[in-house]
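Hi C.,

You asked whether I'd gotten around to modeling the 254-residue construct. I have! Everything is below, sequence then structure, no commentary in between.
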Amino acid sequence: MILSDNDLELLNSDLGQRFLYSTDQVSLYRALRQTKAELRLRELQVELIKLQDWTIRENKRIIILFEGRDSAGKGGAIRRFSSRINQRFYQIVALPKPTEVEQHQWYFQRYVNRFPKPGEIVFFDRSWYNRAIVEPVNGFCTPEEYRIYMKHINAFERMLTESGTYLIKLYFSISKEEQARRFQEIKKSPLKRWKMTEVDEQAQELWDEYTKYKLRMLSKTDTKNAPWTIIKADRKTAARTSAIEHVLQTIPYS
């Protein structure tokens, strides 16, 4: 590959050197791509600070949903969104299995309880869309519960957006092969092994069933007031960049 003077300067920077020697196999192309991607992410994080300042100043409320298959990179993307902004004015919500009380409440109640206050951003690491895919695939809800949910979801989100809340729905889409690779990486790592759940263990086997419900969800709940944005997520850094760019383009913060 032919390197420009700018490319050489990037590779010789501390960041470029870190990526250049991050693996045993040195690749100028990979290191240059990673360096440029990291610098772009840093530029976007500056804009996220401006977005948060606007949110606080104007008393806006923002909800960003991160959906996708297991190991699609939702958590990592949220960390990139939140790592440089003021932690007093955002929440990251990753709700556990519903309690016995929550199981007998209105389905959306426990999510509504975590909605943003004026001046706040809330990142949902999975959301009420659990009932659209994960729950029916794994038998965690009845067919009737699923039917009722699908009947009311669009009206619920319309009330939310018409009340002045910005709702951005991101779906991180990975290939079956990439999911399998990431699962193997997690299983091999003593520091990551805890992330694998029983649901994760069955994800590859139930791939087609997940696909069926995913396509149904995207078809039925991609509305004018609350559209879905598909993020190609096989490359983590590119996915995070695309997600942040979309949010910045969607919300009129400047």
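If it helps when you're writing up: The chain has one domain: 42-250.

Thanks,
B.
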